[in-house]
Design goal:
The complex is a heterodimer of chains A (372) and B (271). Chain A is α/β, with parallel strands linked by helices and 372 residues long. Chain A is 38% helix and 22% strand. Chain A folds into two domains: 180 residues, Rossmann fold; 104 residues, Rossmann fold. In chain A, helix 11 links the parallel strand 12 and strand 13. The mean pLDDT of chain B is 95. Classes of the chains: A alpha/beta (372), B alpha/beta (271). The structure holds thiamine diphosphate and iron/sulfur cluster.
Amino acid sequence: MRLEAGTYFMQGNEACVEGAIAAGLRFFAGYPITPSTEIAERLAERLPEEGGIFIQMEDEIASISAVIGSSWVGAKAMTATSGPGFSLMQENIGYAAMTETPLVIVNVMRGGPSTGLPTMPSQGDVMQAKYGSHGDYEIIALAPATVQDMFDLTIKAFNFSEIYRVPAIILSDAEVGHMRGKFTVPKKSEVLERRMRTDKVWHDGFAYDESLVPRFPVFGRGFRVHVTGISHDIAGYPRTDPEVHEELVRRLSEKIIGNRDKISLTDIYNEDSDRFIVTYGSPTLAAMEVIGNDPSIGLLQLKTLWPMPEESIRHVAKNVKEILVVEMNMGQVFKEVQRIACLEGCENVRLLSKVGGEVHTPQEIVHSLRRC
Amino acid sequence: MEDFFDLYRKDRWPTIFCPGCGVGTVMNCFYRAFSELDIDQDRVVFVSGVGCSSRIPGYIRADSIHTTHGRALAVATGLSLSNPDLKVIVFTGDGDLGAIGGNHFIHSSRRNADMTVFCINNNIYGMTGGQASTTTPHRAFSTTTPYGNMEFPFDLAELAVTAGANYVARWTVRNVKELIGSMRKALVKNGFSFVEVASPCPTGFGRRNKMGDPKQMYEWLKIKSVRKEKSEFWNMDPVDLNISGQITIGEFVDRNRPSLGSMLKSMMNNE
Ligand SMILES: Cc1ncc(C[n+]2csc(CCOP(=O)(O)OP(=O)(O)O)c2C)c(N)n1
Ligand code: SF4
């Protein structure tokens, strides 16, 4: 049974599972890795109850492959992993982007590079999520900061993935994944479905309208569609002409970038402040405490990381003297914020970086703000 | 189905395959096997990885997915589990299946995942221009074994038998009748069925091994292949001793272990 409306007390990873089930998850394939394993474990129990399929594959490459296969027969499909597994998935993330395969990947980030800090949080995979596979492409990435976000943003990730036919990545971290807390399941969550192809014309399986997103010709219904990671025309047939390639690659990006406003999820607190903190994921909690004690400081929480919510960042940058980006890496979103704030003439963008596997404390943020 | 082009996409003809390539024979045999069976073409999905052999699904008039190199079986696993009513058929090559996709091959066989896999074993990486593969014979030449292959080849059929597949056979492209028969059997088998086809790649393998003429490659397949009943290694190793350079042909296993899909279904029905 999907969770009934009400308040629950759970771990972030568990709330993610319930969000996925509320969004209509039918298939999960994964490979155990800390700190994401609870997602697989809970789904092993929960999915069969829902009539869905759970399978533990031989590795993460197999996991994302199986998810791709499942999506082509029309199932909402997902996998969950952490850094090393996310690295293994990169080739097929590009494949899913190229073939416009809806799927959701949860990356509960841990300290890297390599095996790094398996049990501790980090936000080191932000750039990898966007640029990890080869070639030019876009994905969507969301960053939950609370147990509630793990539930809500998982549903949103499925919605975006289905609507835009693109991999949607939940960039969680060990802190949020393992955090226990209350969250509310609303009476009704908005759940969106992919637009299916209905007419039986089978030689233009990738034809698109002004939305730039082709309707989905699900396998097994007589569309006789060919799907390939090679550059392809609207028939889905391999083509090597530069024009065909250019049209395809530009459209794959444009269908996401052109909808940046609809995909950008942000929260702004203390909007009139002239000093702003920018956070995403678990450092947001410390920042919340800081602005709770000092309403003269503003906070921009990015819930969408890719495509980068440029409008919100520009909006904040317009009137401020200073922006402090707080993140658990050596400055990945920082460089994006710096670039975008500069467009509004705001040059005072600083980074409060932490890579030790611990979340920032409110004191560290206050201290850093005082320094300016 | 009366015509070859009821199965294949006429609008994609001619194919990319070289003259004398075994892929064409396999496509012909597959047409013969498939058309004799009463399988609804709209309820089949063809899956492949990357390579010359993996290009076949792109020529078939049915839902087909040409995935990344080596990953066909893992994609097929997700497909067949999510819609068990569909027939899932994989075309792959020895590099795609035995090297980069080797792990998925082992585990799909072990799970007895519901799919039929046809592997065109041409002993070489054809598509990338003739590098050694996991089935390149010992001491054979390739662009990456210019002094001869110092490694020993993999026996794909034996691997499938050992790991748990329900049906396993191997033929060369010369054994057309037997190949069609095995393809037919594999197509109606539940669980994991596997047919390996020893096939010539005159361009990538033949030219570097004094068999540039397809006729020489066919002759080589004839000399090297031995029916399992006549194999002198049969008692030692029922499938093959590939190390000897012999291509043992025949049907190696035909059993009915429960498939992955059926096991999951019985679990869901609390059986
Ligand atoms: C990840 C990755 N590595 C390498 C390649 C290059 N590549 C394409 S096909 C191929 C070998 C194919 O060999 P095989 O499966 O035996 O097929 P054949 O062409 O011989 O039929 C390779 C190495 C690739 N496409 N992807
Ligand atoms: S390179 Fe070899 S396998 Fe590929 S089409 Fe040519 S002959 Fe066939």
